Amino acid sequence: MALSEVRNDVRLPVTAAQLGVWVAQRLAPESALYQCAVHFDSGPLDIEVLRRSVARAVAETEALRARFGDDGEVFQVISGTGTGTGTGALEPPVDLIDLSATPDPEAAARAWMDEDLGTTPDLEAGPLFRHALLVLSESRHFFYLRYHHIVLDGFGQTRYLDRVARVYSALLAGEEPGPMRARGLGALVEEESAYRESAHHGSDREFLLERLAGAEERQSLADGTAGTAPRALRLRTALP
């Protein structure tokens, strides 16, 4: 696998999965349903080292830097990073939200995250992600990442945050982080295109059509299809 490049703006086609999310978002432009978020409850942090770690990880992660357009064909543009000179040069911030003086810092932090998660995305302008460090006290922080599902899925989120953690640990120890070895989006788009033009795609399609032949129509207690929810619901429970 080749190293992801730090470069100026690059236009690429979208993948089939991205196209599906793009269409769904266009059908409900005010919906925040495809906004995703995760946060980590942590102790003391070196904020400047965290910011440097995020900047490096974003520079290495093309998917996060994507924004989307439509000129008769849906496409994505990978913005350059702060080290580039393109018009889309990006220096990702880590917003510092100090809630330590509020009566209930944890409740205030959760309310802040819920409100941010409901932000309406702009797929054309971007950026489609946000980092924040919510300060509950000197010894407790929430590190928060919000991203649109068109740029990351659960697996991608895990890999990205693992990279942030590895870079942070290395820099905190005064060491130089090793490079992140990952294919860029261009390679993934080419791989999907090659598959769709291959004999394997045709045989896979025929297999599924044969397997599903004669399947019953789906059953439903409703007469129609429910509309798109404006945002996801969150349920928190403690496991024994």
Automatic annotation (TrEMBL):
SUPFAM superfamilies: CoA-dependent acyltransferases. Residues 12-229 form the Condensation domain. One of its GO terms (biological process) is lipid biosynthetic process. InterPro entries: CAT-like_dom_sf, Condensation_dom. Gene3D superfamilies: Chloramphenicol acetyltransferase-like domain (3.30.559.10). GO terms for molecular function: catalytic activity. This is Condensation domain-containing protein. It comes from Streptomyces parvus.
